[in-house]
Write a structure and sequence with these properties.
seven-stranded antiparallel β-sheet, Lipoprotein
Length: about 180
């Protein structure tokens, strides 16, 4: 009986955590999310957020009076098999609603393929996947805006160049994005 009860508890814990982690990935049709190993926690300069990125990736931090950001990329793989990740905490008030998505897309020169408003880590958020041409290359872009309860928000931007393995790279990016912690 004890083993059966333990099994039920373990299954419910793992299925709950997987469901929470996969909500955004399910919307984007990710079939599996790879498990990242060998990561390092990086904190932004102003200590507003942290994120786990692979140890082998190059990364840089930046800050000014308006934002604090981390820029990271896998420089070992060629660009058409990897992606560029830019996460910034911006000091500005946003309100995630239908008007927000319209306003964001006024400035977007890419075609929006998918978008959604949802709760991410107990915070209102809006994400979109877009496609277009940048500098003569096919570009897929994932943007995610996460409203903070204070004066600010996180903007995540991921760029995928080329047409190969876009879903797989997107799933890998979502795994990294899911490691964001607000401080």
């Amino acid at each position: 009986m004890k083993n059966f009860l333990l099994l039920i508890i373990l299954v419910s814990v793992f299925s709950t955590s997987c469901t929470e982690r996969l909500s955004l990935a399910n919307e984007l049709a990710c079939k599996t999310i790879p498990s990242l190993q060998g990561t390092i926690e990086k904190k932004d300069f102003k200590n507003k957020f942290s994120i786990d990125i692979p140890k082998t990736w190059k990364h840089k931090g930046y800050y000014d009076d308006y934002q604090s950001s981390i820029f990271a990329a896998d420089t070992i793989r060629e660009l058409s098999k990897s992606f560029i990740l830019d996460i910034a905490y911006k000091y500005s008030v946003i309100n995630i609603d239908k008007e927000f998505s319209k306003e964001i897309n006024k400035e977007n020169s890419l075609n929006v393929l998918k978008s959604n408003m949802e709760i991410f880590k107990e915070k209102p958020s809006y994400w979109q996947v877009s496609k277009g041409i940048k500098n003569g290359y096919v570009l897929h872009e994932f943007q995610h805006f996460i409203q903070d309860k204070t004066f600010g928000y996180i903007e995540v931007k991921v760029e995928f160049y080329g047409e190969k393995m876009v879903d797989e790279r997107l799933c890998e990016a979502l795994e990294i994005i899911n490691s964001i912690e607000f401080n």
